[in-house]
Every structure is written in structure tokens, then in C-alpha cells.
Amino acid sequence: MSMLDGWWDDFFFGLVTVLQVFSVSLVIAVVCGLLGASAKLSKSRVLRGIAQAYTIVFRGAPELLVLLLFYFGMAIALTQVVQLFDPSVKFIDLPPFWAGSIAIGLIVGAYMTETFRGAFLGVDRGQIEAARALSLKRHQIFRYVRFPQMWRLALPNFGNHMLSIMKDTALVSIIGLEEILFVAKMANSLIHRPFLLYMTVALIYLAITTVITLAVGWLEVRANRHLRGAR
Q1: 3-state class of 54 per DSSP?
Q2: What is the percentage of the chain residues whose pLDDT exceeds 90?
Q3: CB of 118 within 8 A of CB of 55?
Q4: Which parts pass through the membrane (predicted)?
Q5: 63 with 168: CB under 8 angstroms?
Q6: How far apart are CA 142 and CA 154, in angstroms?
Q7: Is 105 exposed, middle or buried (0-12, 13-18, 19+ CB in 10 A)?
């Protein structure tokens, strides 16, 4: 491991970048998932059609391809919009951090849409009817009845989506974001130890995904604790 001396700082800052991308992507994915699930369960055909198109596109296209199209496509689109107001602008480069985070969030959000939709459908209708009988308003029913029940049902798949986001952060090295895989590539060009470097990256990812798995497992136990008491 002495061959990695001088690179540990770079790996640390690369890890910080990975965690930042993960956090932003997770927020975007959850928001897109909830909005998509709500649209699919709505009575509006337009909203259902938009949500269906969203899930088909982002679940059907390869993730790396979506990332590249989003990175270069958004840069071109932003350039054209800005040029309408300032023709002197030649090109606007979209920051790799935001391009990667948004792309990963949209991709995983499409999967979360189906997870949340199924979880909402799994909520006992009797509980919702009982809440209405108690004169609870729609937002109160969602907050106190539907969302807690949906969250419990969605947790197992939600954990899988979190793992997917974490592993997908490795893709952003393709567009030049300096995360741990990017650092490993740069280090390998100098010390020529690909197995050591990429194994280091693998162990870092394994450590993070293990923490996520344990955290989700703890949340599942906590969310289902009332069921054990009912037995």
C-alpha cells in the first residue's frame, strides 16, 4: 500500500465527491419517484401519460448513454437559450457534478416511481376509509396514513435503489468529475498498478454499500416493529 502514498488525499476528496453526488441524486430520485407515482395514480390521463413516458424512457435506455446525452445535450440546450439573450456567448459547459447528479437522480427516480406506486397501492383501503370517516383532510390522510404505510412497504426496494445510486456514481468519472474512480485512473497512468488501485476503489464502494445495507435493514426493523407487537 506504500505505492499509494501521496494519493490518499485525492482518494479522500474523491470519496467526498461521491457522497455529494449520492446525496443530491437521492433527493432528486425521491422527488421524481413521488411525483411520478402520484401522476400514475392520478385520474388525469395527461399526467399518467407523462409519467408513463418518463419511466419507459429512463428505465429503457442504458444509464451511461443517458448520462452522456444529458451532459452534452443540456450543455447545447443551455447555450442556445443563453444565446437568445447574448449572441456573443459561444458555449456553456454544464458542470459534471450537476449533470451527473441530475442524470442519476432521473434514472433511479424512474425505478422509484414504480416502487412507490406499488407501495401506495398496497396500503389498506380500509385505513384510508377510516381516516375519511374521522373527517381527516386529504393532506392529513397522506401524512398520517398513506405515506407511513407506503414507506414501510417501499423500504426493501428503496434500499436497492440507494445501492444503485451509489454504484452509479462511478459513471460520472466518464464526464470528468474527479471522484474516486477518476482518481484511480489518474494514479494508474503514473504508477501503473491497475489491480491495486481499482481494488482500493472497490473496497471503498463495498464499505459504503455495506453501511447503506445495514442502515436500511435497521429502518425496516423499526418500520415493522408494530407488526411484531401485534403477534
Answers
A1: helix
A2: 51
A3: no
A4: 12-37, 64-85, 97-113, 195-219
A5: yes
A6: 15
A7: buried
pLDDT tens-digit series, residues 35-86: 999 999 988 999 999 999 999 999 999 999 999 988 888 878 878 888 788 7
Prediction pTM value: 0.88
Q: How far apart are CA 132 and CA 144, in angstroms?
A: 12
Domains of the chain: which residue ranges? 2-230
Position 229 pLDDT exceeds 60: no
The length of the chain, given as a count of residues:
231
How is domain 2-230 classified at the CATH fold level? MetI-like fold (1.10.3720)
Integer-rounded Cα radius of gyration of the chain: 22
Give the angle subtended at the CA of 211 by the CAs of 32 and 165, to the nearest 5°: 30
Alpha-carbon distance of 168 to 170, in angstroms, equals 5
